[in-house]
Amino acid sequence: MTLTLGQIKTGFNGFQSILDLDKQIVPEDYEINISNWIDANMCAPLGAILHRKKTKNMPVRISNISLFVKSILQKNHFLSQFGVSEKPDSYGTTIEYRRFETVNKLNAYGQFQAYVTKYFRSRSLGLPEMTPALLKRFRESLFEVFWNAIEHSYTQDGIFTCGQFFPGQKRLTFSISDLGIGIDGNIYRNLQRRLPAEDAIRWAISGKTTRRGRSGGLGLQLIQEFIKLNQGRLIIVSSAGYWELSKGKVSTNTFSMPFPGTVVTIDIDTSDKTSYCLSSEIDSSNVF
Amino acid sequence: MSAMEKINIVSIIGNSICVAAEDGQKVYDAIYTALQEGKNIEISFKGIEDLTTLFLNAAIGQLYDKFKDDELKNRMFVVDASSQDLDTLKHSVERAKEYFKDPERFHSATDEILGHDNE
Hints:
The complex is a heterodimer. Chain A is of the alpha/beta class.
């Protein structure tokens, strides 16, 4: 049987298309038709869903993929898992699709550090011109999100990442997806409180933490401030909740069926020259 | 006058990417030991490329559970920090001070914390 994947752009409808596919795949022999557009960073949540199917003995095959999309997904190695050969990316605008095994947390983190270093250092191939301050904040945001996924998702299936540079539009988009218990699941597990998925995301953004004995909860709060200054986009999908900050405005939505984990997408304006010091002048002699 | 111990973060963790809580714990252990020995501490941020609050919450934030705010203010000094790293440090320190005054407030999942996104 062939299923057609709807257009997948970074946003509520794109995630809905992935969830529609998730719902339709049942234990049979399936082919997925990818003739519609897919934003490269969305390979992270799509790859997570397809990996989950594979671990449940529901492998899928890819068919009828448009040449342009195929070329991008060969360059970012997404299609390798389906036996399609990789293609060199001479412009360096794709950021490789990766699945990080999380059985050993420190190994996963070490591998993610190497990955971030490869793609997001000032000399990295294809990296748009960005101020060092912007690039540093971007990298630090990725580390915060990745570590949150390792620490709080309780995933057994790894963490999935993918991104894309858009030199013409001066944008950089990156998604990190896990197949864990979701923010709502984490709150329930640790605080025994059930919150609707959308409220659970707001809880996390507001600076709360489930970790005891050490201050925390700052990561997402500071990323949110960073994205506001950049006039970029931050999207958090967790279980059935959808939360988006775009050009300083927040919107939320709810899916009819949950995403089986959490996805954080960061989309920045690479031409922004803001200094990214979020507090006013700090005197180093008075920091404590 | 107390002896001054110099602690270089990058040297302790052997990496300029200071982002993992586990690495932050190594820095915490060094600072905690020196403070317990009655030394004052100069913490060098020299050579740091990336720095997260996760790292700093472990490396420095936890100290606010063991020592009084004023004591840390009088006995710890920061050198060689970029303005961006100082900014991240300031956020982590302020959060730690607040957290250890009333940890439960940060774990609560009551409706009052579900504020207004656009505020």
